[in-house]
Design a protein that fits this description.
The chain is α+β, with helices and mostly antiparallel strands. The protein has 4 helices and 4 strands; from the N terminus they run βαβαββαα. Its main location: membrane.
């Protein structure tokens, strides 16, 4: 798969995960950065793929990947936004 992907879930009881997913997509949309939203709740294989790319068997959404390169999780995303290094974080430059 190529391009920027945000692994998320439409089925979660965690308000924190919902909030983090919304913030990531809101920021990407606001900066007009194209991405594909991958809903891991639709298929366990997608959850396993997300965790393999993240290198963490317990990783939870949101996780961000560009092509086959892992970019990071929510905390790293927010840090990149605050440091104005989002393009580099997303591996777009």
């Amino acid at each position: 798969m190529s391009g920027l992907r945000v692994y998320s879930t439409s089925v979660t009881g965690s308000r924190e995960i919902k909030s983090q997913q919304s913030e990531v997509t809101r920021i990407l949309d606001g900066k007009r950065i194209q991405y594909q939203l991958v809903d891991i709740s639709q298929d366990n294989a997608l959850r396993d793929e997300m965790r393999a790319l993240a290198g963490n068997p317990k990783a939870t959404p949101p996780q961000i990947v560009n092509g086959d390169q892992y970019c990071g999780d929510y905390e790293l995303f927010v840090e990149a936004v605050e440091q104005n290094t989002l393009q580099e974080f997303l591996k777009l430059v």
